[in-house]
Amino acid sequence: MHTMHREAANGVVTNATAMRSLARILVLAATAVLCGAWSDLPDGCNGTGTPGVDLQLTRCVLNDTSRRVSLGECGIVSFLPGCFEGCDVGELYFPGALVQELPGGMLEGLTVRTLGAYSLPDLRTIRAGFTRGLSVQTMSMDSSEGLRVIEPFAFQYLEVVSLDLMLGNITHLAADSLSDMRVAWALSLQGNPIEHIESGAFRNTTIGRWPLCLCSSRVTTVANGAFSGLSAPGLVLNRNDRLQALGTAAFSGLNASEIQVTRAPALTTILPGAFHDVQSLRSVTVEADALTTLSAQWLPADAPLDSLRVSSQALTTLAAASFQALRVAGNVTLTFPALTTVPMSTFSGAVGGDVVLRNTSLVLSPQAFEGLTVQGRLDLSWSPLGATLPDYAFKGLTVGTLDLSHSAMEGVSPQAFQGLAIAQGGEVILAQSVQYLPAEACVLANPEVLVGARLVAPGMGGTTCKAAGRAMVNWLNTQVCTDCLPGFYCPAGSAASRACPPGTYRSTPGATGVTSCTSCPRGTGHAGVGATHSGACVACPDPVPASKPGWGMCEAHGSDTGSDTGSKDDDGAHHPHKKSKGLCTCSFVGYCVGVPAARCVCVCVGVCARVYVCCVLCAVCCVLCAVCCV
Q1: How far, in Å, CA of 114 to CA of 119, rounded?
Q2: Residue 465: DSSP 8-state
Q3: What are phi and psi of 441, to 5 degrees?
Q4: What is the phi/psi pair of residue 103, to 5°?
Q5: What is 165-177 written as a DSSP string?
Q6: Does residue 279 have a pLDDT over 90?
Q7: In sequence order, which residues have a C-beta less than 8 Å from that of residue 386 and are 6 or more positions away?
Q8: What pLDDT is stored for residue 582 in this prediction?
């Protein structure tokens, strides 16, 4: 794709031309001073009248393709149409001529390699048909500061390598004023204070190599197909200090691969349809610090772009559907430092590269990216995104990598990642400031989220995770701080979780201690650890295992006489070694946790529920537990 030449867009060419024009004027002035009179017409040229007063060039006979002919110091005031009929010359110049107009048919029948009609101090008008019948390669008409009017069809059917109309005083481009031309390289209009461009001003004009640069103009609004009928590699609107709006159909009918609107400090509004009906459009760049209104559907739906770049220092809110139905093969870069709101359904379509949204104030609305597919990276890394990422912030988004790395958010809502699809092997990169994820946002998300992705969470593992009810767990190949998972309890001071003991369960996240584990109902139990629901509690076996934990709520079965496991005496006291009638509810069997099995936990269930943790033999723990039940 054609690449814009920033030097031209930024005024370097304009400045160089201004210096060149000044040098030309100084040469003419010096010539007049030194000679003290106008020069004679060159051999082969005739005229009538007095030089500098009313001299009219009537006829030239020039047939030397190597000859350089200058008419600039001859005091010519006017040209007779057809005065160059049949001439074939290498170079022809008439800078400084005192003409007020260039008439139609003036150059008819002329064949010339280079034509220089620049620095004409009195020139006001170029008439219709001026270049009719002209055969030329390069044509320079710059630096005529009085030039205001180009009549319709003035350059009709002109075929030229380049046409330079810079640094004039053209304020109005009427319909067909620059129509029906074939310019192989460049058409230059920089430095003209153009205020208005009528639809069809460039009708059927083709520029082959360089973009058309409308720079340093005074246009306030571009609308109604101002460039309709123009075919060019690109269009550059640069340094237009008065440009306030790109109206509906601003570029309709233009055939260009690239449009740049840059350094437009007064541009505040881009209306719906501004970039619609542009053929061959592949790249759009808008740099407007004062832009406050970026309307919905300002871009055409499904236009196959290679890149899109928009920046504004003043834009605070994006309209819904302002970036809908994107079809961008490369990158989308949006720089909005004042942006605070991205509403629902702002983005949709497909982007083959990255989407970079840079700003300092953004808070996402739910489903802002619904319907958008980004094959590369959605980069929100320099966006604060608010204190907490909202629920369904990325619902309906499909992306290769979601980069939130330099955002200022500290929290993530439980449903923040619901509906987000990450490409297989892609990444979700969280900010350093995110030190905790709700279990519902990650491990316990229902349905699962970020399937097949890798999580990068550099902020995890600090003191935040040592709070009661939190623990470090592995999710998406990364250790994350989240709520203590069902089936576990997490006391303060440690990021490790502990399984609920046999005979208990925990169905919800966030348990802070063993007492947060719920005992199985009387008459049920289980021997496992880490149960997550009451369904783990099954009917007590008969007989009740005496050597395994988890059956503390069971009624032990045996003879009515004797005493071996404990019962309630007449005095109402509980004793651990009397024959049971189902009244003793104490279990004191130790079990090992951890690898290696260096810690033992003994659980007493019932009236005197208590947990003993020791690093010696389980038997000692059980003795202590037994004392509790006496």
Answers
A1: 16
A2: G
A3: -85, -15
A4: -80, 160
A5: -TT----EE-TTT
A6: yes
A7: 362, 363, 364, 409
A8: 37
